[in-house]
Amino acid sequence: xxxxxxxxxxxxxxxxxxxxxxxxxxxxxxxxxxxxxxxxxxxxxxxxxxxxxxxxxxxxxxxxxxxxxxxxxxxxxxxxxxxxxxxxxxxxxxxxxxxxxxxxxxxxxxxxxxxxxxxxxxxxxxxxxxxxxxxxxxxxxxxxxxxxxxxxxxxxxxxxxxxxxxxxxxxxxxxxxxxxxxxxxxxxxxxxxxxxxxxxxxxxxxxxxxxxxxxxxxxxxxxxxxxxxxxxxxxxxxxxxxxxxxxxxxxxxxxxxxxxxxxxxxxxxxxxxxxxxxxxxxxxxxxxxxxxxxxxxxxxxxxxxxxxxxxxxxxxxxxxxxxxxxxxxxxxxxxxxxxxxxxxxxxxxxxxxxxxxxxxxxxxxxxxxxxxxxxxxxxxxxxxxxxxxxxxxxxxxxxxxxxxxxxxxxxxxxxxxxxxxxxxxxxxxxxxxxxxxxxxxxxxxxxxxxxxxxxxxxxxxxxxxxxxxxxxxxxxxxxxxxxxxxxxxxxxxxxxxxxxxxxxxxxxxxxxxxxxxxxxxxxxxxxxxxxxxxxxxxxxxxxxxxxxxxxxxxxxxxxxxxxxxxxxxxxxxxxxxxxxxxxxxxxxxxxxxxxxxxxxxxxxxxxxxxxxxxxxxxxxxxxxxxxxxxxxxxxxxxxxxxxxxxxxxxxxxxxxxxxxxxxxxxxxxxxxxxxxxxxxxxxxxxxxxxxxxxxxxxxxxxxxxxxxxxxxxxxxxxxxxxxxxxxxxxxxxxxxxxxxxxxxxxxxxxxxxxxxxxxxxxxxxxxxxxxxxxxxxxxxxxxxxxxxxxxxxxxxxxxxxxxxxxxxxxxxxxxxxxxxxxxxxxxxxxxxxxxxxxxxxxxxxxxxxxxxxxxxxxxxxxxxxxxxxxxxxxxxxxxxxxxxxxxxxxxxxxxxxxxxxxxxxxxxxxxxxxxxxxxxxxxxxxxxxxxxxxxxxxxxxxxxxxxxxxxxxxxxxxxxxxxxxxxxxxxxxxxxxxxxxxxxxxxxxxxxxxxxxxxxxxxxxxxxxxxxxxxxxxxxxxxxxxxxxxxxxxxxxxxxxxxxxxxxxxxxxxxxxxxxxxxxxxxxxxxxxxxxxxxxxxxxxxxxxxxxxxxxxxxxxxxxxxxxxxxxxxxxxxxxxxxxxxxxxxxxxxxxxxxxxxxxxxxxxxxxxxxxxxxxxxxxxxxxxxxxxxxxxxxxxxxxxxxxxxxxxxxxxxxxxxxxxxxxxxxxxxxxxxxxxxxxxxxxxxxxxxxxxxxxxxxxxxxxxxxxxxxxxxxxxxxxxxxxxxxxxxxxxxxxxxxxxxxxxxxxxxxxxxxxxxxxxxxxxxxxxxxxxxxxxxxxxxxxxxxxxxxxxxxxxxxxxxxxxxxxxxxxxxxxxxxxxxxxxxx
Length: 1371
Hints:
By secondary structure, the protein is of the alpha+beta class.
């Protein structure tokens, strides 16, 4: 805050300059030693007894202080107009710091170098500095023998053997200050002269310069006007008043210093007019002062003298002179002089308080704060400066006056406003007006908020409450410094003013105002950079035009000539053609290779953007040899409990329009410096953060700019590496499944053992499948990918470009773990806002588990970034939902405003997330895995005996064909297994799986699958197939109706290879050979019937068969099986039905013509199955358990169903049917299982448990009546007995009843019976017992009488009815 801090008006500036070849470290060491003397007691200043030189010297035993500051740079030349108005603005002394440790460097050369440095920083005609010294420090002990004496008093040698250098340096500084105070008298004498007084009143801002030395201790000054200024019209005589009038007005002047109401209680000295004679002035000095003011009577002169008294530490004399001068400078042309005098008075009061106060002044209840009066006068100062107007200068050639005082007046206004703000800020930051606050005003300690890393709002409010100074009041005090008058300031002054405003806003915690000012600071800086670059380029062009370039005198232009905005010539058309050619297309050479300036500017740029919610370091940058740049992991792979970037939960902050303006400025600044790595970083960070708000043109411009910047940086040897910036480009990663013929399938090692049975279980089982690998029935939960060692595998990566330009990806490679994977990275170009599917081929060199974590992507000139692609497991989804709920609850529970609402600030306060992350177990991510198996052989089908892969068969016909397979790999095959599939199998398996079939139908379906397969494996010629060898496989094909397509699956492997350790599984490969099947229907069986022998008396074939069996023994043991056979084909077929019972075989052969239907009758022995068989449930041929029928049947119905099933099974086992085509000799079987058995058929087929014999006997002799065929012959009106003989042939006792039922209605009217005909009790019949039941009858009329004797069980006898017919012919 040089020149703008509150105490700068009372500080003697001593310029520190390096002399000779002193190192930076040594210079800083000795400069810090000198700077430690920031104030010196007045009693330590050596007196000056020379006549006229002790005017500003302190009196002996004075208690005041002389305040010092040590700038490193002199004021700019355009501040010369302030040489009299503000003496404290200029260095009053110069100290050169030299190193005299080198014995080869004489002291005279050191002194010459000091004079050269003094002439460079302070022009000879300048009135300042008033004195100068060169301190030569010796380092080390080896130079003690060198003659360190110097004859020039300006050079002081400080040897290394000196013990306490600090005391000696303090003494030297005191002597230097004494000489400065002595020279104040010379300056005062020059101002007292007639020319000096005339000059003071001739110009608003008079200028003083140094003339030649008169040979003594005094210097002669000359006064001149600023260049191109016109003299003021103010009269000298009009500004003079008597000393008495000034003294009389001291008590009534409104601008005077009034004592505070509480000053008497605090004991603080009051620098008022009535109390001027305090510790800092003697009676002689007061008398001299009064005489002088009476003689000159000039207010401006009094103000300057008061300034020198203030610099001399004599605050009482300074206040007196300020008060007296204020009484004289009352005109509008003296507003700035009045304001300066008021500033000096305020500072004098603060200095007195500083010297007398150690603790904060306690506030007095009901009174104004201690700082209010000083603040009010400082507000008046700012008001006076703001109302001051510059004097008109001489007109320019165009006729317009040239204003040269506006920059100076604007600078004074800004300094006064900032001085006022600094005063309030020092009190506020130190919580009151105490010693610490005064130290801050004097620049000895920084403002308190600056030392805090992150002050809270509560601290700001507390400090305002303690000091009664709100932050807004300090901000209002700074407002006058930031206005349109800033445009009058030169760039350096603008930079200083704006930087101080930004620093004060930072101390106050006004971040947004701070960054607003910092944007103006950056604008001024870049104007200076561009202006200096253009100036250097113009000088180089001028040198070329004048011919100096050929002599090596031309400066090197700073324009790199790359065509980037801000780096080329903006006004090249106004220069000669040679200059234009120099600026464009030439090689730029940087004279200074330090990047400190650029880095500091870029740090400010990043800070400004960060306050607006834009992180320009979002895209990391690094250099080779350092840590890798921070890339996508910044917000995507942080702690799981704190990172929500991979889920798209980034919180928005700020106005996009404002953020766009800020980032455009940042990119333009990096482009204009130029700093090419930063330019690329800013451009790419902007693309990444502000992508949704950028237009396509802006996106393409930023992308092209970053590419040019990186290329230029590499060309200049700067190998900066940019982190991946384009967001997550990969959407999905998949492993392409191997072709079916190459896909290995895992089997347990037990499958190598031969199986004697279980084929039905393999076909019908719920968990086993007829195929070793069946893609149709593959479980959806099986997601494991399989690859083969040393065979290529393909990865499919889906990429997406969200930008409006084509994104070039230099390298994409897989990120894997587990087994070694050999692959080559690939490059691609992703079109704008489009998807790109990329395929990468790789080879696994060893068996094991391969884990695919994601990909590594690298953009041109950037670092590779890994993108993980975990699988969306249930655990991961639950963890994501839990994190989202925590975030939602946190956002509802806590509110943030202002800059605290930035995402990074809010994340710091989310303690619940941190605690949840600590408490939660570490999250495990699941990645895509692939099992790599051992090398596998590869077979192919070389040839087949099928023509065009198709076979045509009749229904029930069987055909055999052969397949020839060849091993085309270098690995032998020692395991071969065949599996088959056809269109009938899948439909039947689906019906069984649905479980909707009745139990009997399910059995029929399973029976058809197990016992009538379409394909059947016959054998192979060679079980082990070596490399490049062949084998022949024989397969039988069966013609089944409804089958149109089939497939043969050959599974093979090299399973019995040598391994280091035993394994539990092995893998096979498959070959599927499709077969087209055409099945033609030949014969159809329908209308099956089973009849007892007694029913048929036809004279045809059935009657013949019946009579033949009736004549045989035991005709009741036989029944007749009949079925109709239809020919559906175009040719005749011979049909043969065979009976296979009790090792006896009967057959019936018939020729069935095309389209004809033939009834086949075949005698069968009746069957009798025990209840242990008929009570068994209907079985299943599969491994399904608990097969329950969907139908709700009663116990009787279920028993009947089982009885029908088991008798039908034995019936079908007793009959075999086949056909033969006479013309071709082709033959096949006839399918009979489509026939159904009914209850009447069952009764005809089933052998009765009881034997019932009915005969007609004569009553007279008990002999059997005559018979004619199957009919008995009776005579009318004769008595007969109908005898029923009943024999129990079952294994249980039976309780029976007998009934006679006539064949037709009305038959009983012609016959008389001696008892009832229905429910004649037979009684309990033991096992094997027989009983005869006689019923008397007499026929009264002739005719045919037919009866049916029905034997039924009674009570608990589980038996059906047995009926026997009897036919009686009465004639």
